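note to self — DONT lose this again. spent like an hour looking for the file last time. sequence + predicted structure for the chain T wanted, 214 res
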Amino acid sequence: MPYLNQLIEGYRRFRANDWEHERDRWSELAEGQNPRVMILSCADSRVDPAQIFDARPGEMFVARNIAALAPPYETSQGFHGVSAALEFAVTQLKVGEILVMGHGLCGGCAAALTGQFDDTAPGEGHFIADWVQMLKGARDSVRARHSEIDNEAFLDMEQEAVKVSLANLRTFPWITEREQAGELKLHGAHFSIAEGQLYILDEAEDTFRPVSMN
């Protein structure tokens, strides 16, 4: 396993550098975690929230999946991994904020927009298509706004996906209760890989604004 060897070398660098320099921090974390924010982001290898936000160990509770999607609230039988992560972060860790972070060049959003995996078998894209099906309404709106599926349409789809996730988060009763009580804040963001630029969603204005470097 050649790449496992690279991972082990990375672990050794971590132990010799980061862990050694943060030993007091790791000692604290051995007693438990107390993150103040949950990040819901894409599983894409290019958008690591800890790297983008230059976070220390224990600062963020992170859940990653295809297209950074929050599903709607459901109580049916099944394996609700994202819902479990949300429940743990909000009701047990009592985070004060949730940030949904989409990103540029998102393959999951592209699959939703183009329908490239529709009607495929398991192992050929079925699970991807089934997962991004929650973006069907957004996809229809994006397609209606664009005469062709180009870069602008893909960006529109990525940003709409963030809004869908925020709307879905607000279907969870214990999220809306805390938001209305001022105990929890929800945010949306989009990270441009090409620019290295983070955009924050202004929900009142329904637009994504670049974060200033000042």
